[in-house]
Amino acid sequence: MTNTALVLGGGGAVGLAWTVGMLAGLAEEGLDLSGADLTIGTSAGSVIGARLTSGVRIEEMYREELDGAPEIDVTVTLRQTVRFLWAALGSRDPQRSAQRLGRAALASRTVPESDVHRAVAVLLAGVSDWPAAADLRVTAVDAADGELVVFDSASLVTLPEAVAASCAVPVVWPPVSAAGRRWMDGGSRSTANVHLARGADRVVAITPIPEAVGPHPSATEQGAELTADGSLVAVLTPDRASRKAFGRNMLDQTRRTAAARAGRIQAASCADAVRAVWAA
To answer: What's the number of CA atoms in the CB half-sphere (13 Å) around residue 106?
Structure first.
């Protein structure tokens, strides 16, 4: 059984910054989560997970957010938003909802796939290989059938390909081609995929967006299932101050600094809950 699992959820540029702030704040409280036996990354969380397991210090990532990390220009139109919501909310069945979203993603005219890879290369900031000394798992959803997949070092995809697939927001970015399939955002069915930590003794999940659009379980619900299975679990979600710092657009680059600071501040109020799990 895996002893400790760190789950990092999706949330766009703003959610990424908040998660980095949370990790930095927890480390300041004496809770360094970078040494988890298992790290699961979804969408923006896959970027953090890839860098963290590759040896990039969380304090360095935090300073980047404050000092002006490279910006990724992603514009979401009203038409894209409506199409995304129409697809995701068009069925009460989780599988059919994911399949509808996949069809919409495959049919949408977006930026070239090469733009996604360039953006992810910027976000990874030089990290290009699966970590040799850590168990990193990256989620994505098959755009053809809506099935969740998990990439790791044994998969026939590179780390940048896996992260690009996990970050390919349906309708906004094109599905990413890898291993003969096309993949969309790992958060399409669950924003954090906390359930993938099943079997771990202790689980901490940092989830800037606790629930996916559509008929899917929330991170809190998935955490409760792990608790029922016998794991110690802490699911961290944004408090009121953090949500205010986010604003309404999770891709708004101008909110990153405020979100990172809010995450670091909120970490102090989460420290006891995390300590009860991580130090048990």
So the answer is: 16
Buried/exposed code over 233-256 (b: 16+ C-beta within 10 A; e: otherwise) = bbbbbbeeebeebbeeebbbbebb
**Rounded to the nearest 10 degrees, what angle do helices 44-53 and 58-67 cross at?**
130
Range list of β-strands (E), 181-222: 181-185, 202-206
Report H helices in 128-255. 159-167, 219-228, 240-246
Tens of pLDDT, residues 30-77:
999 999 999 999 999 999 999 999 999 999 999 999 987 677 778 888
Indicate the pTM of the whole model: 0.95
Residue 205: helix, strand or coil by DSSP?
strand
Q: Running DSSP on this structure, what letter comes out for residue 189?
A: T
Closest listed residue to residue 261, CA positions, set 56, 22, 9, 12: 22
**Residue 165 CB contacts under 8 Å (≥ 6 apart), including other chains:** 138, 140, 151, 157, 175, 176, 178, 183, 184, 186
Contact present, 148 and 186 (Cβ < 8 Å): yes
